[in-house]
Amino acid sequence: MNDDPLDAMIRGGTALLGIPLDPAWHDAVHAHLAVCLRMGTEVAAFPLPDEAEPAPVFTP
Amino acid sequence: MTGAAIAAGVRAGTTSARVVVEAALATIADRNPGLGAFTAVIADRALATADAVDAAVASGRDPGPLAGVPFAVKNLFDIAGLPTLAGSRINRDRPPAGQDATLIRRLEAAGAVLVGALNMGEYAYDFTGENTHDGPSHNPHDLRRMSGGSSGGSGAAVGGGLVPLALGSDTNGSIRVPASFCGVFGLKATYGRLSRGGSFPFVASLDHVGPLARGVRDLALSYDAMQGPDSRDSTCADRPLEPISGLLARGSAGLRIAVAGGYFRTGAATEALDAVAAVAAALGATREVELPEAARARAAAYVITASEGAALHLDRLRRRPADFDPQVRDRLVAGALIPAAMVAQAQKFRRWYRDAVLRVFAGVDVLLAPATPFPAPALGTRTMVLNGAEVPLRPNIGLFTQPISFIGLPVVAVPVPGFALPIGVQVIAPPWREDLALRVAWQLEETGVACAWEAPGAHQ
After folding, report:
1. Distance between CA atoms of B450 and B452, rounded to whole angstroms?
2. Which of B43, B67, B291, B460 has CA 20 to 30 A from B392's CA?
């Protein structure tokens, strides 16, 4: 095993979540997760005030 | 024949719902094997419904504005007596639905006749119309090509002339993409306008449902019949009915129409840009406006989709990972691992982006943008060359639809003729102004600038 943090995240994350991951699926999951994290990083990089509200509003 | 023409004939007594539905069932039997659009045909029920419509006409009762119009629904809508597949193998083990989805009930209350369930990409996480379990739905204008997804069967059924009207769902573009690829009209109404009651979910934050049809009047008639609050969908807005069918002829008069620039002009093939240019020229739209942070909006939609989709399917990923379509499973597993902080930020950004886009709409009534970056690719295609660079196909199909549905804007996808393959344009309006998008689409259709592609074999 290498020390790619994504590999570790996939192995550890799926184990913790109880998802039985066939090793043959690993590379595809890796590719998709890399895209998701790139997208997430792009979103998280956008400066928003602490007071910014999320879009969904729950009405009791 | 359009739904409006069918309904007019049934209402006038020049034809009967039974004759219309029998003809639709025969067409489906003839052409569906090549198209792969239907996963279930409910002939007995359809004929019984048609007979009830004819009985209403015979007794002098109003059979409804969609009298005798055959329609079919993406198989994520509940149909009483059938398991709701949502394109999956796993859902085949579900018990049959106890009742119809809300929109099916409303369309049938307006006289329409449900004839079956339609193929779709598994769990709606798809832009191609391909399906491991049922086979792909094929593009009616070139069977070797994609129908588009995830409402691929809906696009194939309407584009192929099997039914004049179908329902689909659209989380990131799944009505607008098959409408574009299959050469038909599609309406994605404002988020919360049309009830999702009795439909299998995907991403609660972004899921929409709506019609695909061969003409704008059919979109408007079905939309009017389907509007209204619904206790079965907590997101469905508590708004009064705002019927549009009687307003279509107002067209685009007095409307400020602009083309979405910047992001929406990058990464599109010539056909997509030419289609927008043709529509803009016909409408006299010379202005170009920017939707701020559109690329980031798409990224946020991507993250929310993967994460909420994974949460929905987490238990199935644990118990039956091998029973998923591999293309869907691998994306869902990745989605399950996205840090929650990114998802929370994406939802905060969503509100920021909505406010920013509403400021754009203070100066413009309708926006035009490509529906898809290119016409339908060949089935099985994995990559695409855009602007000289090879890029993965699947994520790029929704490039131009995702930043729009992300904030729930109403859109009519209109098919533009004159190209080798169908290609569509998005006519986008501010929230709750479906009327504006439908009026503009109606004018485009009236003037021949937009037109459903003729169904192959329609005159045979």
Report:
1. 7
2. B291
Tokens 């080798």 identify what position? Answer: B420
Please say if B174 is a catalytic residue: yes
Question: Please, which residues have CB within 8 angstroms of residue B227's CB and are 6 or more apart in sequence?
Answer: B193, B194, B241, B242, B243
Question: What is the pTM assigned to this prediction?
Answer: 0.97
- Per CB-CB distance under 8 Å, the chain A contacts of B317 are 17, 19
C-alpha distance from residue A24 to each of A28, B179, B420 (Å): 8, 35, 40
Could B349 and A40 be called an inter-chain contact, meaning their C-beta atoms sit closer than 8 Å?
Answer: no
Residues of B in contact with A36 (CB under 8 A): 302-303, 306, 334-335, 337-338
Collapsed DSSP state (helix, strand, coil) of residue B435: helix
Residue from the list B300, B321, B334 with its beta carbon closest to the beta carbon of A20: B321
**Does A22 contact B at CB distance below 8 Å?**
yes
Per-residue pLDDT of chain B (460 residues; tens, 9 = 90+): 999 999 999 999 999 999 999 999 999 999 999 999 999 999 999 999 999 999 999 999 999 999 999 999 999 999 999 999 999 999 999 999 999 999 999 999 999 999 999 999 999 999 999 999 999 999 999 999 999 999 999 999 999 999 999 999 999 999 999 999 999 999 999 999 999 999 999 999 999 999 999 999 999 999 999 999 999 999 999 999 999 999 999 999 999 999 999 999 998 999 999 999 999 999 999 999 999 999 999 999 999 999 999 999 999 999 999 999 999 999 999 999 999 999 999 999 999 999 999 999 999 999 999 999 999 999 999 988 777 778 778 878 999 999 999 999 999 999 999 999 999 999 999 999 999 999 999 999 999 999 999 988 765 4
Name the maximum alpha-carbon separation found in chain A.
49
Which of B318, B322, B346 is opposite residue A43, by nearest beta carbon?
Answer: B346
Would you call B347 and A28 a contact, using CB atoms and an 8 Å cutoff? no
Closest C-alpha among B161, B188, B165 to residue B72: B165
